[in-house]
Amino acid sequence: MTESDFYSLELLLDPDGRQLLHRVREFMEKEVEPVINRYWTREEFPREIIPAMSELGVAGLAYSGYGCRGGGCLLDGMVAMELARVDSSIATFAGVHGGLAMGSIYLCGSEEQKQRWLPAMARMEKIGAFGLTEPEVGSGAARGLTTTARRDGDEWVLDGQKRWIGNATFADYVVIWARDVDDNQVKGFVVETPAPGFATTKMKDKIALRVVQNATITLDGVRVPEANRLQNARSFRDTAKVLRLTRAGVAWMAVGCGRGAYEHALAYAKERQQFGRPIAGFQLVQDQLVRMLANVTASACLCVRLSQLQDAGIADDQQSALAKAFCTVRMRETVGLARELLGGNGILLEYHVGRFVADAEAIYSYEGTREINTLIVGRAITGVGAFV
Ligand SMILES: Cc1cc2nc3c(=O)[nH]c(=O)nc-3n(C[C@H](O)[C@H](O)[C@H](O)COP(=O)(O)OP(=O)(O)OC[C@H]3O[C@@H](n4cnc5c(N)ncnc54)[C@H](O)[C@@H]3O)c2cc1C
């Protein structure tokens, strides 16, 4: 058990699940933590870790069949948390691949499409990306997508631009959400790269999640066979099913990011001496530590219940949205307190907490900002939509 698992939530997993969680922990602490700051500085992704991640079998834990290990949403969430506890970029890479891209195919694909794409993705031989956001359309994606899809015989022609698309520079399958010019509905298409007319430009100089390879995608008359249109994605309501699943994963990642920062701060407080004694012995420092611990504990408990509702098949958009909004706010406070506790060293990469502070900013805004997730909950509890 980690020091941040104050209520022993890990014990909710069966022995198999716990064993997987421990293997993920070991992998992240031994293989990722020692090298990640170097990649963060250079804005590069450590692709050499993919085979070891593939062996862990963490892609597709929330799904059953199609070569996925399975295990349910609680295990999937705790693994996302465990990845983020060491590094949020690696957790994001896994979330985009296993959550957004595989989830689109799992929830919106036909039986044949799931059989065709998911097994290689579960083995991480093929990597996925998810293209929803556009340069001019972020929060308003439900209504305003400008990327178009035009049917031409047995093919579709995609035109437009996507922005912020994680993994896009090296992904094999990119799910593109586009508006059908005939019926004006949003549909999903799996673009197998490379494809004529499909181009990516890496987004540089980010101050958060620098290891994640985000890109602008240009679609210039990209032809996709009808067989690659996700057969059960008929409108944005179906896209929202994917987001419902992945927002819960992001809430878990926020718990992981907070937990990692807390554990670094706790270790530092026990070692760092001022006024002739460890700073852990000062009341105000203990107050910071306990506030951090309370944040991550409350958030984790909320996520556990959300995962249980998901596993029971009764979670709705508003429950995922509330968890994403609440946990990311608490995460932001937690990493800020950790940085404060480390004093000047809190802004040095080598102490890790600075990376957590920076990366938390991206987690706070992606997969629906706090405002948008708040409006989803607000609509559910009042019955009145207040988006515009
Ligand atoms: C690191 C990173 C990775 C990402 N990865 C992906 C990816 O893989 N695939 C993908 O498709 N997208 C991805 N995104 C995009 C992400 O989901 C969007 O950034 C997010 O949805 C917000 O959109 P925006 O940045 O365009 O902000 P905007 O929508 O322009 O919002 C700006 C501000 O206005 C507020 N706002 C907007 N509308 C309202 C309203 N009605 N009421 C109140 N406030 C409002 C927002 O809350 C925000 O504070 C990623 C983003 C980041 C930063």
Write a concise keyword list for the protein shown above.
seven-stranded mixed sheet, 388 residues, 11 helices, globular, alpha+beta, two-stranded antiparallel ribbon, binds flavin-adenine dinucleotide
- Global geometry: globular
Kindly state the percentage of residues in helix: 40-55%
Q: Which class of secondary structure composition applies to the elements?
A: alpha+beta
- Which oligomerization state do the chains in this entry correspond to? single chain
Biggest sheet statistics: 7 strands, mixed
Number of helices: 11
Distance between the termini: 45 Å
Cα-based radius of gyration, to the nearest Å: 21 Å
Percent of residues in beta strands: 5-15%
Give your account of this protein's structure:
By secondary structure, the chain is α+β, with helices and mostly antiparallel strands. The chain is 52% helix and 15% strand. It is built from 11 helices and 9 strands. It has helices spanning 15-42, 50-56, 73-86, 88-108, 111-122, 141-144, 236-271, 283-311, 317-341, 353-365, 370-382, and strands spanning 128-131, 148-152, 155-166, 173-180, 186-192, 198-202, 214-225, 273-274, 277-278. Strands 1, 2, 3, 4, 5, 6 and 7 form a 7-stranded mixed β-sheet that branches. Strand 8 and strand 9 (277-278) form a beta hairpin. Helix 1 runs parallel beside helix 3 and helix 7 (236-271) runs antiparallel to helix 10 (353-365). The longest helix has 36 residues, at 236-271. It starts with 14 loop residues before the first helix and ends in a 6-residue tail after the last helix. Flavin-adenine dinucleotide (FAD) binds at residues 96, 130-133, 138-139, 164-166, 209, 212, 214, 362, 365-369, 371-372, 387-388. Flavin-adenine dinucleotide is lined by residues 96, 130-133, 138-139, 164-166, 209, 212, 214, 362, 365-369, 371-372, 387-388.
